[in-house]
């Protein structure tokens, strides 16, 4: 999943996402990419308990890779604009 947390979900959407992560737990690998820190996820899901449950499913036995706060697209654009070539 790319841009996770970019759009807010209604309760039905958040529950569906919870079901997907629950079904995949310990069966299939799931990659999630987001620019949003965990502290902002409650805004995406609109329910703190459901947010905590989803975060729990996503982070159970996971490998968390933090690349920084800037978007790689933004960084590539800046490099292209200010490149001496």
TrEMBL record:
Query: Which is one GO molecular function term here?
Result: ATP binding
* Residues covered by the IstB-like ATP-binding domain: 1-80
Q: Which Pfam families match?
A: IstB_IS21 (PF01695)
Protein name per the record: IstB-like ATP-binding domain-containing protein
- Species of provenance: Streptomyces venezuelae
């Amino acid at each position: 999943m790319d841009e996770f947390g970019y759009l807010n979900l209604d309760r039905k959407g958040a529950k569906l996402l919870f079901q997907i992560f629950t079904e995949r737990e310990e069966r299939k690998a799931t990659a999630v990419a987001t620019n949003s820190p965990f502290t902002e996820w409650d805004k995406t899901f609109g329910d703190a308990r459901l947010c905590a449950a989803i975060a729990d499913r996503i982070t159970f036995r996971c490998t968390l890779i933090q690349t920084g706060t800037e978007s790689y697209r933004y960084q590539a654009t800046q490099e292209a604009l200010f490149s001496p070539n």
